[in-house]
Amino acid sequence: MRSWNEPTKKRLHIEIIPMIDVMMFLLVFFILISLNVIPALGIKTSLPESGHAQVLKPQNNAIITLGKNDRLQLDGKDISKIKILDSLKQLKEKNKNLVIIIRCDKGIDVQRLVSIMDLLKGSGFKSISIATKNKN
User: Fold this and answer.
1) Contact 47, 136 (CB under 8 A)
2) pLDDT digit string (tens) for 89-98?
3) Which residue ranges traverse the bilayer (predicted)?
4) Helices 81-94 and 110-122 sit at what angle, rounded to 10 degrees?
């Protein structure tokens, strides 16, 4: 008697390596996109150079940006000089160790920088820093 070979059933399996490749591609893509988008927020400034600049930790900071044409921003949002104190006082109520960092363009008049710092000191803010970039 003749025996017939029964076809073997193929077992299905999932190829995971191409799926991992696609996920890595998406992860790298979104990281690169997010790195290019974040610095585009706010006023574009050319910071003054300093040979002894310190790196500040990014916690508990409020960033004031002084731009050309009397532009003023708090944490990337336009604000008037009158409203900035109210906003900073609200931030200080939430965080007692608030550090104010002033970003200022090279071409800004020193008197404007001094008047903002005087306004902040007169309102009780003690920790004020000026952002610079390393001279390299």
Assistant:
1) no
2) 888 888 778 8
3) 12-38
4) 50
